[in-house]
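Usage

Read records sequentially. Each one opens with the input sequence:
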Amino acid sequence: MSIDFRQVFQRALPYDEFLQKYGTEDQRARWKQVYDATVITPEQAALLSSFRRQMNVLCMAGPWCGDCVNACPIFQRFAEGGGHSTEIDLRFINRDRDFEAAMKTAGDGASDVAVAKELSICGAPRVPVLLFMSEDGFECERYGERTLATYREKARKQLSGTQGASCPIGLAPEKQIHETNVAEWLTHFERVQWMLLTSPRLIRLHGEA
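and closes with the structure output:
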């Protein structure tokens, strides 16, 4: 059975509500640390404020996940547009930390479990994963869960035997890597915006033809 992501998006939560509902005090503090460290440059703010086609962005995340700690506050900064209004409607849905146990006990109404399985990457329900949609709910792109810069750094450490954990604990990332990640994540938001702006269907819908 296919998933209607329009319905999933409608029940998903904005950033602050998501953290308040699912995050612990310590987890919220770590997300805030990365949020405060994330700087949108004037050029990036100008790009975000130039978006004129609404995009609905659904993020599957877990407040416990270090990759989410280091990425989701960046997404929120994009939605805020560096102080300017944007056309990004960003919402979050939770993935249980103990996913295998949740899958066994959730039953037929386990919509979040089903969404996590549908958005799996490399055979696993990893987070964060972004699902980009048009204003009327058509899927444009799926992307997650780490940027190229993050994977390069992870591979460098892991292959040299200096990193054993599969998921970081979510401490504030090094400044240079973080800035690179901000720029890399932004390319996906920009790509979808150009997709929406040049879509013949949406051009007709907005009477721009």
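Summary fields computed downstream for this record:
- The longest helix spans residues 175-197.
- The first strand starts at residue 55 and ends at 61.
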